Every structure is written in structure tokens, then in C-alpha cells.
Amino acid sequence: MKLLVTGGAGFIGSNFIRYWLRTHRTDCICNVDKLTYAGNLKNLDDLTHGHELVCRDICDESCDPTLEDLMEGVDAVIHFAAESHVDRSIDSSAEFIRTNVMGTQRLLEVARRKRVARFVHISTDEVYGALGPTGEFTEQTPLDPNSPYAASKAGADMLARSYFRTHGLPVIVTRACNNYGPYQHPEKLIPLMTTNALEGLPLPVYGKGEQVREWLHVEDNCRAIEAVLARGVPGEVYNIGSGERHNNITIVKTILRLLDRPSSLIRFVEDRLAHDFRYALDCSKARRELQWEPQIRLEEGLQMTVTWYQANRAWVESAKNRPFKDYYSQMYESRAGYAGKQ
Ligand code: NAD
Ligand code: DAU
Hints:
Distance between the termini: 19 Å
Bound molecules: nicotinamide-adenine-dinucleotide, 2'deoxy-thymidine-5'-diphospho-alpha-D-glucose
CATH class of the domain at 2-179 and 217-240: Alpha Beta
Shape: globular
CATH architecture of the domain at 2-179 and 217-240: 3-Layer(aba) Sandwich
Number of strands: 12
Number of helices: 12
CATH superfamily of the domain at 2-179 and 217-240: NAD(P)-binding Rossmann-like Domain
Strand order of the largest sheet: 3-2-1-4-5-6-10
Oligomer: single chain
């Protein structure tokens, strides 16, 4: 198979490329990524075969090779590229609308023209909004996003649906819960708390840390996307979750315990605006129709994850210190940096 992956130098995309090339050794992947602050070539450093990076913006139509060129002869598109951090969308939302909504529209439109056989759109559970203390989101739950990030992902998710309904493009949507694992940018809860604890820095917990998230190891999500490619039905949506739901303070204290660091590092700070209280996914459809099950329990996955961040301090430094540069200088630098790898 030949796959076109967008956003493959970010957290989930790079884990997906590594997983796919490990399990499908003769396949090849074209990875289209703008390499924003969140994209990091070091995420793919160890890849030796089957991967080609094209450093470009999914919104940019004038760039050569064009998106049309890149979709020529591909068996499937897996669209991860996005602005992904809720706090950044609260500070400034324009880039979220541009990449997440307009970028998704560009890809869908090109995929329609090129008659791509399968388009997997990576959405998120945040499109459903927030739950109270009980209940679960099913794929039928109406979308009710609260942050600009979630709203932009809901827009993209609905565009994906519309391209199936209107044009018959074989789109499948996944809505996963919070992923964790190696190569996640240290702006996100688990890597932030882990790396701060390792450095003896304060651990900023929003509000009282009572919000609940469902945690899925990224490799289980990669297996779910593989199952979607193999058995997913065009036009369908699949929730992808683990059932492992914990409030934030419990996660933070577990990380401190695993690292043998004191709870005096915890600082309760001002809450996130419109902070979603709880997410919980009903994943019975994915289990039944995709024959997929998560394999990594949170306790085991967290241990592996904190060990990875402990052992990869140079990667952490590279991720934390990546300044946001403008697109063109970024593109030049990354192309030059990547040349030796191909
Ligand atoms: P990430 O921020 O780590 O990576 C995003 C990647 O997209 C980066 O490599 C970045 O350079 C690239 N990108 C951003 N704008 C681009 C543009 N205009 N053109 C080309 N590339 C661009 O994100 P992630 O956590 O890996 O999330 C991947 C996808 O999964 C996103 O769509 C996100 O909404 C979704 N998702 C994430 C989670 C999670 O817990 N991380 C859970 C559910 C769904
Ligand atoms: O649910 C899926 C979503 O999970 C994805 O769509 C997003 O791309 C991804 O970023 C993630 O969103 P969250 O907002 O849930 O993840 P984050 O790691 O930013 O925060 C997790 C929880 O921890 C949330 O309740 C806010 C809290 N938090 C986060 C940070 C960064 C803190 O208490 N302190 C922090 O410093």
C-alpha cells in the first residue's frame, strides 16, 4: 500500500508511521507536514525505510508538488495534521480555523478529484463537548464543542461527513480520547508533568484537578486506525477509547509516584476557560465492528511513558526549545535537515 499521511511529524502521526512501517514492511508513506512548533523531525529519526517527508502546508495550493500530485496513486489518506492544543486556541484561534477547517476542506476536495479510495479523518472526542459526573458519548451524541480548538475540529469533522454524503468520498472518521505515549509535545498534560517533575519544576494543575479524561496509549490508537483502514465502513464514525478514566490530579500524583518525586511540586493554578469537566467514550461500535481492543493498560503505559521521557532528555530539550519560525525559513531548514535521511 501507498499511504499519504498528513501531520506525521507530530505526536500521533509519527507514532502511526513508525507503527505502520514496522507492521507493513513493504508499504510506503508520504508524510505531508508543515513542521510547525509541534512537528519535529527528531520524531522520525530512527526510520530507515518506506518514508518520505514533504514539508508543506496543507492549506497552500501554490506549492510544488501540489496536493494533487501527492495524492496520485495513493491507496488511502490518513489526515492527522492539525493545531491540537486547547490552551493555544484560547490564546489565538485563527491558525486553528485555517489549518483544521480550511486545511481539511482542501484535502477533502483534492481527494474527491483524485477519487482516493479511503480517507481517514482523525477527529477527537472533544467535538462532543463536556459530560457531567455520569454518562458516555456515543457516535450519535450531538456535537457541542466548547473551545475554539474543539469547534474547529467539529467543523472539520462535519466537512468530512459532508464529502461522504454529497460526493460519495469514502471518508471514515475516528474520534479518539486523550492519547499519551512517546514523542508527545511537552505542552500536553502527561509529558509536561513528567518533564517538569524530572527537572524539579512546579506542576501546574488547572483548578482543583477534578476534570476527568479518558487515556489511551498512542500505539492502541495506531492499531485502531489500522483496523479502520482494514474494516471501517465509509461514512461511519468510530469512537476510540480505553475506558480508563481518571481525574487530572490522580494522573499527576501517579506520575510523581512513578518518578519518586514529592507532591509538594504540585501547584493549583487558575483554571482553563470553559474547561470541559469530563470525557468518556462508549467504544462498543469499534470493538464490535472493527474487532479492535486496546491492549495497553494505563498503569503499564504510564510507566513505559515516564521511562521514555526519562531516557530521552535530548528529545525533550529539542521539543521544548523549538522556536516558532515562519513557514519558509522552517521549510528550508527542515528540508536541508532531512536530506541526509532519504
Ligand atoms: P500534534 O500537535 O502533535 O501534531 C500536529 C502535526 O500537524 C504537527 O506535526 C504539525 O507540524 C502538523 N501541522 C500543523 N499545521 C499544519 C499545516 N497547516 N499543514 C501541514 N501540517 C501541519 O498533534 P497530535 O496530538 O499528534 O494530534 C494529531 C491529530 O489527532 C489531530 O488532528 C488531533 O486533533 C487529533 N487527536 C489528538 C488527540 C491527542 O490526545 N493528542 C486525541 C484525539 C484526536
Ligand atoms: O480528548 C482529546 C484531546 O486531548 C485532543 O483532541 C487534543 O488535541 C489534546 O490536546 C487533548 O486535549 P486536552 O485539553 O484534554 O489535553 P491537555 O493535555 O491539554 O490537558 C489534559 C487535562 O489536563 C485537561 O483537563 C487540562 C489539564 N491540564 C493541562 C495542562 C497542559 C492541567 O491541569 N495543567 C496543564 O498544565
